[in-house]
Amino acid sequence: MASVDIYTDGSALGNPGPGGYAAVLLSGDKRLEISGGFALTTNNRMELKAVIEALRVLKGQGHFIRLYSDSKYVIDAFAQNWLATWQKRDWKNVKNPDLWQALLPLTNLHRIEWCWVKGHADVPENERCDVLAKAAASASSLPPDTGYSSPNT
What we know:
The chain has one domain (3-137): Nucleotidyltransferase, domain 5, CATH 3.30.420. The longest helix has 14 residues, at 43-56. The chain is of the alpha/beta class and 153 residues long. Helix 1 (43-56) runs parallel beside helix 4. The chain has helices spanning 43-56, 72-79, 82-88, 97-107, 124-137, and strands spanning 3-12, 17-27, 30-41, 64-69, 111-116.
C-alpha cells in the first residue's frame, strides 16, 4: 500500500465560534487538499474533524501514514495512549466523544505515525492547512456541528 503524508489543522474564530478544518494529503506526486466548516464549534473539535476527514478520503486499507498536526490534544491522545483509558471509562468525562469514536475505527485501517509539528513555524503544509481552515470557518451559511453541545466541549 501507499505511503501518505497528511497535514491537518483546525480553527475556531472564537472558541466556541465558527470553525473550520483542513488537511493536505501527499502521496508520491499526488496532492489533495480538503476543508470544511461549521457555524458553531470549538478548535479541538475542528482539529479532530480534520484528521477524521483526511482518513475518510483514503481509498483502501493498510497505508503507512505520517500524520502531522499542531494539536497536542490529538497527537498526545495517541502518543500517550489516553484513548485506551477513555474507552475503559466508557468515555465518561471525555470531551468530544462522538469524534473520538468516529476516529478510532479509521485509525485501525492503517499504520499511522503521529507527528506533532509546532504551529506557525513555517512548515509549509501546516501553514497551508491553517489558511484553508480559517477560510472554511469564515465561509457563509455554515452547517451546524451537530455533535457540539456545550461550551465545555
